[in-house]
Amino acid sequence: AQSVTQPDIHITVSEGASLELRCNYSYGATPYLFWYVQSPGQGLQLLLKYFSGDTLVQGIKGFEAEFKRSQSSFNLRKPSVHWSDAAEYFCAVQRGGTASKLTFGTGTRLQVTL
Amino acid sequence: GAVVSQHPSRVICKSGTSVKIECRSLDFQATTMFWYRQFPKKSLMLMATSNEGSKATYEQGVEKDKFLINHASLTLSTLTVTSAHPEDSSFYICSATSQGTYEQYFGPGTRLTVT
C-alpha cells in the first residue's frame, strides 16, 4: 500500500526566508505526486504535480518541488516566503492510472513571522 | 476551468437527524468523485469513491449505511449523513475527476456540526 510521510508537523520561517517542506513516500513503482495547500476552513488548492519527465517541477505561487527517486522524496521549496503563504501543506501520492485515489500525508503547518 | 462546488458550506444539525451535502462539478463531467473527511488539524481521510451510475466503493471502516453516497449524474454527487451524532462533526471535502485524467479537483469543503 502507498503511504506518505511529512516529518515536520509545524514549521516557522521569517518572511523573505527560504522554505523547504519535506515529503517521503512509499510505493512500489513511481507514483504520481502532488502538493496541495489549504487555508483554514478552506478546500485544497493544487500547487504542483509530478507525473513523469523533468524531476524539478514548477508550480503556482513561486513554489517548486524536486522528485528524487533514490530518496523516495518530493520536497517542496520556495526561495522567499511571503506572509500569505502561511497555511497547511499536504503532500499526496497517487498510484498510476486515472481516477485512482490519493493518499495524503499528515500535513505541515507553516507559520510565517514578519 | 475545473471548478468544484459544495453546498452547504456550513451546516448545523441536531443529533439523530440526517443531512445531505452536495458536490457539483461546474464546468466538466465528473466520472469519478471522492469524498474525504478531515478532523481538526488532521489530514484528509478518504471515505469513498463513487463512479457515475454505480454504487460507491467505501474505504475500510467507513459505514456505508451511515454515509450514503449517490452519484446519479456526471455533475453531482451527494453525501448523506444519516442519524448524525456529535462524533460525525467534521469537515467533509469532495473531489472530482474526469475520464482519462489523473488530477482531482477539490471542492471548498462543508463544515458539519452535530449538536
C-alpha Rg of chain B (nearest Å)? 13 Å
Mean pLDDT of chain A: 92
Distance between the termini of chain A: 41 Å
String of helices and strands of chain A: EEEEEEEEEEEE
Output the number of helix runs of chain A: 0
Low-confidence regions of chain A: none
Largest interface: A-B, 24 and 27 residues
Number of strands of chain A: 12
- Share in helix of chain B: under 10%
Share in helix of chain A: under 10%
Describe this structure in words.
The complex is a heterodimer of chains A (114) and B (115). Helix content of chain A is 0%, strand content 52%. Chain A has 114 residues and is mainly beta. Chain A is built from no helices and 12 strands. The model of chain A has no long low-confidence stretch (mean pLDDT 92). In chain A, the strands form 3 sheets. In chain A, strands 2, 5, 6, 10, 11 and 12 form a 6-stranded mixed beta sheet that branches. Chain A has a 4-stranded antiparallel beta sheet with strand order 3-9-8-7, with no helix packed on it. The N and C termini of chain A lie far apart (41 Å). Chain B is globular, with a radius of gyration of 13 Å. In chain B, strands 2, 4, 5, 6, 9, 10 and 11 form a 7-stranded mixed beta sheet that branches. In chain B, strands 1-3-8-7 form a 4-stranded antiparallel beta sheet, with no helix packed on it. Chain B is mostly beta strands and 115 residues long. Chains A and B meet through β6 and β11 of A and β5 and β9 of B.
